[in-house]
## 1
Amino acid sequence: AVLTGHLAPQLSGLERAGALAGSAILARRSTVATSQEGGAVVPDTVQVEYRARTGIHSRADYERMYRHSVDDPAGFWGDIAAGFVWERRWAPDHFSYNLDLQSGRVSTRIFAGGRTNIAFNCLDRHVEAGRGSQPCFLWEGNDVGQERKMTYGEVLQEVCRVANWLKSVGVRKGDAVAIYLPLICELPIAMLACTRLGAVHSVVFAGFSADSLAQRCIDCRSRVIITASGGMRGSKRVELKQIVDAAAKVAAEKGHKIHKALVVEHPAAPRGKCPWARGRDVWYGDAVPAQQATCQVEWVDAEDPLFLLYTSGSTGNPKGVVHSTGGYMVGAATTAKYCFDLQPGDVYWCTADCGWITGHTYLAYGPLLNAATNVIYEGVPLHPQPDRMWQIVEKCKVRTLYTAPTLIRALEAQGDTWVKKHDRSSLRVLGSVGEPINPRAWRWLFEVVGERRCPVIDTWWQTETGTVMISPLPGAWPESPGSATLPFFGVVPVLVNDKGKELHGATEGILCIKQTWPAAIRTIKGDHKRFEQTYFSTFKGLYFTGDGCRRDDRGYYTITGRVDDVINVSGHRVGTAEVEAALAAHGACVEAAVVGVEHKIKGQGIYAYVALAQDEEPSEATRKSLIAAVRQHIGAFAAPDVIHWAPGLPKTRSGKIMRRILRKIAVNADSELGDVSTLADPSVVQAIISMRVTQL
Ligand code: ATP
Ligand code: MG
């Protein structure tokens, strides 16, 4: 999801509660395994060393804070916000929201009346506190040996220079600036430079096509774009500048002119080898170093827009999600701190690209607000060898690793030796986001990568939610493979049936959110009606997530898949995530995707796409044994009707399976696949079609 935006392998291949700050605790923590898949069960009790520097050592500690956050959100968030720098404090009645379309327009206002600047809080605040020489970014290039270290002081100066350049070309508060960069230090720097001026950044993942980029520039009317001459992803060159040129042409044809392009010189495309538009294009290396290294921040209203970002488009047309400044800042910092047990100076690595919400909240803003040392890796995970990630973990002594299930499965498929070759003793917390993590991948992460020492933090959230919504807190309560467990502070999840009736106790339903939370989406760019319709018209007074979810008797929430993807087999509601997890638990299967198809008797049947492990044959015996695995783990009613061998799965550039395409292929509607341009590898579609089977 954008949320995700992870290094999808197929892309080529605060405050009071912190009383115990600094104390190292060795806690005994029980890890309960509910899903009995694969025979492997996490032992009841594991030794987990963690420094609960947040002061939350148990579920009871959490419950106390959670109650406060929900009963008195204005007070709870106000106390935390006081730890940040504000030019003007918020008004006493700063927390207001209306989530009910019938009683007026949907709106959320938090810290209303307050004025702040998030770049100041990410950088100046820490430098003023004496952290200027602490590493801010530890950058690793695509190729081994390419590295760069930037301190907080250096990043602050560079941000000021870029901000001064932006000012020199006329960028003012409220203007949108497009950013189309590979994962180099200049990417978060460009974001912060915009933020410093109160300009609204729109980061477009540097893998999107010219048309996608043009469409996003037109939608938010950005006339300035920050880009690079090129990029490398594994052994593949990405012709960024050519794509920008093509996008500018497309935009011009539609009446939108890109006035300025600031171009970072990337070694993949040095000067002279890069197409150039005189008057429009400016080399970063010529323009930025000449700028002053200080720049007054623009104090903005808490409710002024901070950035806009398009969703990953797994379910349809991407939406331009708009986030606010104050609420987002406090939400990003607080979730990053508690979910990852993050403290100043911790080495933290989020593998997401800044092109997705995860990269915004947990690569750029969240960790910087917490004064962490951020690892940034430009390349792809398996380049040049399958141990690249583990090599970086060892080299940088990464404490927290935040990544995605798609990547975890790809790494698992390479075998354990690659992991074990490298020292991982620095690791304390392992996080996952983007899609449901199947228990087998969860266990591999926990047992092999984390050597059973590190809590696995399965975070559920969305581009629209801005920050983590449901997630374990490290060491505070037992995790459960595949479950995001409990809601974060201030988040009130509810499960409803399809008529909108709230369901209580252990049950399954559609996940909605009551009340609002600091980093909630404020609107969709240029279309507040669409915002209201998409999220608040389905169920009165509730934010509709679009995800199905189960709550067990411990109160744990487990995402079962998208509501649109729920399959109804002979009256049984079957979550796609569960069938996929059961298939993936089978040794022969690396990844699976299931969709529902019309079935004469059952209403809907289950159609499963299975990607086999390298040494596996698509035999009749394997097919039978995969079906048997689903029968055993879920029940006979969930047994797939069709197994379609797939050389790979169609995924968005953020690594999510595009089931809408798989649904069409399943019913032979090859001409109705729709827009496949946001796919990481569109060629996989033909490859899947060519392996079609008919067994229904
Ligand atoms: P679009 O809304 O355009 O279809 P998208 O929903 O894929 O795109 P994101 O906001 O990146 O865009 O993804 C959010 C979705 O990702 C969630 O609604 C959920 O389906 C899924 N998701 C994210 N994290 C988790 C998780 N930990 N467990 C289960 N599902 C998750
Ligand atoms: Mg979505």
## 2
Amino acid sequence: DKFKEGLTKTRDNFSTKVNDLVARYRKVDEDFFEELEEILIQADVGFNTVMELIEELKMEVKRKNIKETADVQSVISEKLVEIYENGQDTSSTLNIQDNGLTVVLFVGVNGVGKTTTIGKLAHKFKTEGKKVLLAAGDTFRAGAIDQLEVWGDRVGVEVIKQGEGSDPAAVMYDAIQAAKARKADILLCDTAGRLQNKVNLMNELEKVKRVIEREIPGAPHEVLLVLDATTGQNALIQAKTFKEVTNVSGIVLTKLDGTAKGGIVLAIRNELEIPVKFVGLGEKMDDLQEFDAEKYVYGLFS
Ligand code: GDP
């Protein structure tokens, strides 16, 4: 199970500590909850989310009259899933059009794994029998276009590009015309992730979106923000900034395999109210999985 494998580091960190805690305390008391709180914060679950969880746990323990710490473990899993779902839209499926072109825009800062994610998704859709095209919309960073082409070759999909420094909106226009001409099903669009200049970034994304909207009514169908799980609370800050700049419909959390602090999924979900749609669990083409809260939470313990 890839999902479980990708969570190895987080699970080793988290469940070892929780098991140790349960063994040391045996009886549920205030100190037990305090230490549990500390473990959750260290796993990057996020302060607000941890406070909410601990409150819920205390109430549930009271309600069920739980005395032994060993009996708290299953309640922790239940509450974590509940907090993740929290009455919100948690669907990880993408808004794919049955007929006509689906346009997916990728945003996120450099190095988070945007190109890799586009490559992985291209592979996934291609495997499902869909015709996929890539748009090299990051015309700012040296090497970004080449890097996307490497993935295009690897997966066997065409990349629509112009030269470095060209107008990203013009690239999008070209890519949409190409997608229409080739009767493509999915167009995956890279963008430049310059968070240093929020106004420029906003203007660039707005212009790109305007071109897409004009050419394909209802598009872009998804705006996916790519975040690197290993950057912990920084990922949360990036997400907040991008949310201010553009409408984000979903999150792809990469490099979950590379961190022991996979609790960041819960923090992102709970504090931003944007669903995590995919998680990256490695560098290879098929190391991308649809996010599943139950699988994730239960994967932390077993
Ligand atoms: P970009 O600058 O956002 O386009 O980032 P890249 O796609 O070039 O990825 C940066 C680095 O992260 C590369 O070395 C990727 O192989 C690596 N990477 C991307 N996604 C994952 C993932 O899910 N797990 C791991 N372990 N590495 C990843």
## 3
Amino acid sequence: RHARTQFRSTTQYSGLSRLLSTLAVLEQRDGKLNVASLAAVTAGQKLGGSVTAFLAGSGVKSVAEEAAKTKGIEKIIYVENGAYDRGLPENWAPLLEENIKKGGFTHILTGHSAFGKSLMPRLAALLDTQQISDITAIESEDTFVRPIYAGNAILTVQSTDNTKVITVRGTAFPAPETEGGSAALEEGADPKTESPTEWISEDLAKSDRPDLGSADKVVSGGRGLKSKEEFDRVMTPLADALGAAIGASRAAVDSGFADNSLQVGQTGKNVAPQLYLCAGISGAIQHLAGMKDSKVIAAINKDADAPIFQVADVGLVGDLFEKVPELTEKLKSQ
Ligand code: FAD
């Protein structure tokens, strides 16, 4: 199914064509560039025109120097201020507004991450434009493709806004090469807006495994695992043998088998690894919405009619408590 719609805002199209220029808003944490956020640069390159990247936080100049090596970025604007460290949208929206007005960018792009999802609607409101979410393709400078209804329909959106404020789906725009570029650095404007919001603390799930959202291989378990003990006993050695991240279905998360941060699907994470190997997952549409773009999907399920087999490249009908340990042993002996 394919729908087409047009967004119009109260800002009338001026008719004056500005040179296409993208501001790609990047993420960093504790002085480390979030490489997945470079998807915004890839999307900017697809648009054509110049791509300027934006970073803010304390000690962010060294992150900007690192990001400057990314191919395809012309300039990096950075703002050194601890108020922008944790990505609070109340602080970031006026910061970006100021720098966008100064730079006259036509397209503002960032990842469809928790940061992008909370920031871009605020920014769009300040700029009086319609925000466009979670794009997976660019048809032209004003026409974008995005999934709706958990990926069951694809919408083509045409925007007449002067400034387009967009979040991009990382799995649809692989990060560019992070070596070989030589972007110029420039200090940006800091409006130092008084904010009613203060960052106090956070509880992060810590793991030595690859990050679920960007891992090459993901092994995922569902309700078929029966308990947290069995989930850990069966899935962890498989993940270790493959060097994979661990994911889970919502049923597994809701039943307490796996941490909330591991949920894959419509209301969890979107993943598109080279290999997605799942066991004891039926393949509900809400789960498929988060993993169906994986390059190779392998599924183990005891029910030959499970819908997961309709999207799987490789399927094994059998009892996971027997098949997964067998597979793990074979992988270990390789
Ligand atoms: P089940 O559907 O119960 O499937 C378990 C499977 O395990 C079965 O196919 C069974 O044959 C198999 N099995 C059982 N025992 C064994 C065994 N011993 N060996 C091999 N196979 C076995 N779900 C998500 O995953 N992610 C989401 O983000 C998400 N968001 C949602 C949002 C909304 C608004 C709604 C309404 C639902 C959402 N869901 C989501 C829930 C989704 O609809 C399903 O309920 C869920 O994905 C089912 O999880 P499951 O496949 O693990 O469980």
